[in-house]
């Protein structure tokens, strides 16, 4: 049988390409990946604008007020004039301001130290409990953490009430008759201690739950090998547990520094910074300065100094942490 070929037939013409470029699946008309262009930016634009309005605008406004002569009249009429760094000079040359700064750092150091110590101990205890005990403790921590700040502060005010407080009644029942109608909030040291107890009580649940979630990621094989080698519990914690949970530990530490450094609601509701100025820290000082004498310029300057000090503390801390990690590597 003879096969006939059409040798003179012209080759098939190629399919025309789209004018916009390649039409391969999964790519847009411009040859880029799906979603390229301005559409993704339009989708996130509302969130960015909202964040700028809620965060950036108040910060910029505070900076501007701190550089102006801004009293009650300027707040109403809006004719404030710029005075440069005069408000900062007035603030930094005030002896009371530096007393408040020292008290703020003392307040932060005491709170953060107690929070991290107690949270670590609670996390270690939870890890060693059975299922029922673990659920019970975690539930109690979550309920404590979920309690509103104002409600918790009000409860502590009732507990230490001079006439009807449970604390005075319990101390009297134990034989401490000197605590009959003892005015806790009229003594600076007592009020300072109550605030520390309140803030530690409110902060330990979050730190403990977070550290417990880090503890469960430590491989059990490491513990078994250390016990076979005869390592003590303290040695196991220093050589195995803490190095593994250190990133989470440092994160919680940083958050607690920020939260205790700018604590305001508890102090303002419970003592209003008193008695005297025994419980006045920088955020409270800034509000007192702005409201008591309508010196919004000095209050804004105090707020900006607070932000700068907190940023300086965190930068110094992170530098030390990264330096230690570099040496370990």
Task: Please give the structural blueprint.
Blueprint: H1 39-66, E1 68-69, H2 72-77, E2 81-82, H3 86-92, H4 95-128, H5 131-146, H6 149-159, H7 166-173, H8 188-215, H9 220-228, H10 233-261, H11 265-270, H12 282-292, H13 296-328
Antiparallel strand pairs: 1-2
Helix pairs in contact: 1-13, 3-13, 4-8, 4-10, 5-8, 8-10, 12-13
Structure, described:
The structure is a single chain. This protein has 13 helices and 2 strands; from the N terminus they run αβαβααααααααααα. It has a two-stranded antiparallel sheet with strand order 1-2. The longest helix is centred in the middle third of the chain and has 34 residues, at 95-128. The termini are far apart. α1 (39-66) crosses α13 (296-328), α3 crosses α13 and α4 crosses α10 (233-261). The chain has 329 residues and is mainly α.
